[in-house]
Specification:
By secondary structure, the protein is α/β, with parallel strands linked by helices. It is built from 20 helices and 20 strands. It has two domains: about 270 residues, Carbon-nitrogen hydrolase (Nitrilase/N-carbamoyl-D-aminoacid amidohydrolase, 4-Layer Sandwich), CATH 3.60.110.10; about 240 residues, Rossmann fold (3-Layer(aba) Sandwich), CATH 3.40.50.620. The protein binds nicotinic acid adenine dinucleotide, adenosine-5'-triphosphate and glutamine (GLN). Pathway: Cofactor biosynthesis; NAD(+) biosynthesis; NAD(+) from deamido-NAD(+) (L-Gln route): step 1/1.
């Protein structure tokens, strides 16, 4: 028997596209003479339908798509497709088991995901253990519930994503019911290193429950923020048999195991966070571009670490996409087939495409350094992006003069430091937005998670943008990733960027402004952030956890913790206003997906005064 897992790149409510992916995969599965194929969780409507799950039509549409469009393509094969479904006035997250053109069983999820980026309890009800009932729709009845399904030589049981991550999981009971094949349709968000945890889960489950375990995750940037890595695994009694390439640019992938090959073994996944970051953001940008039907990206390129990272990631989106899809399919997917002729005439399609998809601008002021200009220019040249350079001193001066006339006093760096910095960052915004509008392109904002923590950014200035690809990753990671990218991805001109210390370049040059002097060392900021925000420790607890670490002397540590908590609380409103970003790391500070915090609060006044006096 040939058993398969399949991944799908779906889009909310894209009935035509989503069913096409499923039907294409089914037709390939039939060509390969597969017997059973497991598709991911909620794959008919997509996982990220958000509050549309509340509607009373969406689940019906899913059921119609399943029975009218997909079922006719399931003759001679068994498959599992995920969909939402209302039964007795409650919404359930179900796996539909189909055999030879017939919908046989509906098996609902028993444990709902409700942590981090998941909010399933908001829409769905967990199905009670052991309960079996009948679901009726359009005069037809189907068994719904905690079923074990006999199919050929197998007794099949289900764990739907989160089901498998709990201690009290269905597999404990399925084993007692004689199940020897567990299918797991998943919608498991990407996070750095997470694939290792999933691999361990799948391999160990197959061992512990003495079964074959099939895992199939969704793929791509489905709905804007969450990324799925499209992982497919099959494990048998503690051995990994099948594992696919993650983060594919394709519409779907299938991986199968012929169970007559009893000795088959797959290579275990070894994680490389630099590559995971590269592939995940490249795929997320690609899907965002094509699904938003935009013409490309516009980026204010400073030659600093953040904007350079964004530029490289767009370039990697093109390179990886071309390598995996080929030119024709790449252009079809971004709705640009008309570029075909021009690009084939060129020796390096990736740079010709970069020139069309990425427009950058260096926007100098009298405070900008020549080295950042050179770093930006050389990087844009290496990538092939359009590079403009203009000066914004006139705009800054016009605004400043108007204010001075009305205030009837000169603006000075001694009195007006932050305002004089912010006006420069803001003066860059209207013109770069204008370019984005002219190109009908997405404006990239270069915000990273560390600056989001402490609000080290000008609202409506350098926060301007429609998409924030690196807002979920910390600056310490970015600095190290760029060094890796210079050699591993062979961007020679990154050497100019990598020589610079991060600086906003908003104060006069003689003040030698650097981010780390304004804030604290980025590595320290990261350690404080992990304890204060991820682990929710109090200021004193953060201090106690770090005081014996070699990361900073006690004076700097205490000062930095106080600064972190003050800036964190003061800047929740800024985090609420950042452009949509992808979820990338094991945690996140985005209030819309992960980390809720009050906009107004005491600012931990009492807790910080205790820390100040702490020994
Ligand atoms: N709770 C709240 N809800 C709504 N608004 C609130 C608020 N608290 C303050 N505000 C308002 O926020 C405004 C201040 O915010 P904003 O104008 O953004 O400016 P602000 O946060 O005061 O300053 C920006 C900081 O970012 C740094 N920066 C800027 C630009 C680029 C870079 C770089 O690294 O390249 C760094 C700059 O050095 C400075 O330290 C004030 O008008 C204040 O009234
Ligand atoms: N001279 C400039 N030309 C174009 N854009 C700029 C310039 N200075 C700043 N910006 C924009 O403002 C953003 C915020 O600046 P910030 O200093 O935080 O990032 P960076 O310059 O990319 O990296 P780093 O902080 O490591 O220097 C930049 O990423 C860039 O988009
Ligand atoms: N969709 C889900 O149930 C996902 C939950 C699970 N904890 C995961 O991240 O993989």
């Amino acid at each position: 028997m040939k058993i398969a897992g399949a991944t799908l790149n779906q889009t909310p409510f894209d009935w035509e596209g989503n069913s096409r992916n499923i039907i294409s995969a089914l037709s390939e599965a039939k060509e390969k003479q597969l017997d059973l194929i497991c598709f991911p969780e909620l794959s008919i409507c997509a996982y990220g339908c958000e509050d549309m799950f509340y509607s009373n039509w969406l689940w019906k549409k899913c059921f119609d798509v399943l029975t009218e469009k997909i079922l006719p393509h399931t003759k001679g094969i068994a498959c599992v497709v995920g969909l939402p479904l209302v039964h007795n006035d409650k919404l359930y997250n179900c796996a539909a088991f189909i055999e030879n053109g017939e919908l046989k069983y509906l098996v609902p999820k028993q444990n709902l995901a409700n942590d981090g980026v998941h909010y399933e309890v908001r829409w769905f009800t967990a199905w009670p253990v052991d309960l079996q009932e009948t679901f009726t729709y359009k005069d037809k009845s189907y068994p719904i519930g905690d079923h074990v399904i006999e199919y050929e030589e197998y007794k099949i049981g289900f764990e739907i994503c989160e089901d498998a991550w709990r201690t009290d999981r269905p597999a404990n009971r399925l084993q007692k019911r004689g199940v020897n094949l567990i299918l797991n349709p998943s919608a498991s968000h990407f996070a750095l290193n997470k694939s290792l945890a999933r691999q361990e889960l799948v391999v160990n489950s197959s061992k512990q429950f003495e079964c074959t375990y099939v895992y199939a995750n969704l793929l791509g940037n489905e709905a804007g923020r969450m990324i799925f890595d499209g992982e497919i695994m099959i494990a048998k009694e503690g051995r990994l048999i099948v594992k696919n390439q993650l983060l594919s640019f394709k519409d779907y992938q299938i991986c199968f195991w012929d169970n007559s090959e009893s000795n088959k073994e797959a290579e275990l996944y070894v994680s490389n966070v630099n590559e995971e970051f590269q592939y995940a953001v490249a795929l997320a940008l690609f899907d965002y571009l094509r699904k938003s039907k935009s013409n490309g990206f516009v980026l204010s390129l400073s030659g600093g670490a953040d904007s350079s990272t964004c530029a490289i990631l767009v370039s990697e989106m093109i390179k990886i996409g071309l390598k995996e899809l080929g030119l024709k399919r790449f252009l079809e997917k971004i709705h640009k087939t008309e570029w075909m002729q021009e690009i084939t005439q060129n020796k390096r399609p990736e740079t010709t495409i970069a020139q069309k998809l990425l427009t950058t601008a260096y926007q100098s002021t009298s405070n900008s350094g020549h080295s950042t200009y050179e770093a930006a220019r050389k990087l844009a040249q290496e990538i092939g992006a359009v590079f403009y350079h203009w000066n914004i001193d006139d705009e800054v001066e016009t605004y400043s003069k108007k204010i001075e006339q009305n205030l009837n006093r000169p603006l000075t760096w001694e009195k007006d430091d932050v305002a004089l910095q912010n006006i420069q960052a803001r003066a860059r915004s209207p013109i770069i937005w204008m370019l984005a509008n002219i190109n009908n392109a997405l404006l990239i904002t270069t915000s990273n998670r560390s600056e989001g923590d402490v609000g080290y950014t000008t609202m409506d200035g350098d926060t301007s943008g429609s998409i924030a690809p690196i807002a979920a990753i910390d600056k310490f990671f970015i600095i190290n990733w760029l060094k890796w990218a210079e050699s591993a991805l062979n961007y020679k001109n990154l050497s100019y960027v990598n020589k610079l210390s991060p600086s906003a370049e908003l104060r006069p040059k003689d003040k030698k402004q650097t981010d780390e002097q304004d804030l604290m060392p980025y590595e320290l900021l990261l350690e404080i952030e992990k304890l204060a925000i991820r682990d929710k420790l109090s200021p004193v607890e953060v201090y106690e956890s770090l005081k014996n670490a070699a990361i900073a002397d006690k004076h700097l540590l205490k000062k930095s913790i106080i600064k972190f908590f003050q800036l964190w609380t003061r800047n929740q409103w800024k985090r609420e206003r950042l452009a949509p970003s992808f979820h990338l790391d094991t945690f996140n500070v985005d209030p819309k997906t992960w980390c809720r915090f009050p906009i107004l609060s005491s600012g931990f006044k009492e807790e910080l005064s205790i820390l100040e006096k702490w020994d």
